[in-house]
Write a structure and sequence with these properties.
two-stranded parallel ribbon; alpha+beta; 89 residues; 3 helices; two-stranded antiparallel sheet
């Protein structure tokens, strides 16, 4: 599945952007996001991360993007299988 991305016309395979927008608009007590910024440019990532921080709700997300990790309040590095926590930030 390929969905339109807000990143300057890029398309992101597998990520349903309308679902994310709807979920954020409805509000929630906790957001779990799996690779939400794949294929998104750096400026857009910065803006989206700032918007997520303004939600006032915890956001747990997975990402391989170094920029996303640098903007996060807390980073937990995982490896696996079997899943295990790696030392360090």
């Amino acid at each position: 599945m390929c969905s339109p991305s807000p990143a300057g016309g890029r398309r992101t395979a597998g990520w349903p952007w309308p679902v994310l927008v709807r979920a954020l608009a409805l509000g929630g007590k906790l957001y779990l996001l799996d690779e939400p910024f794949t294929g998104v440019d750096g400026d857009r990532i910065k803006a989206l991360m700032a918007a997520l921080k303004e939600l006032g709700a915890p956001v747990v997300l997975s990402s391989h993007e170094g920029l996303v990790r640098s903007l996060a309040d807390q980073v937990i590095n995982l490896d696996g299988p079997p899943l295990r926590r790696l030392p360090g930030p």
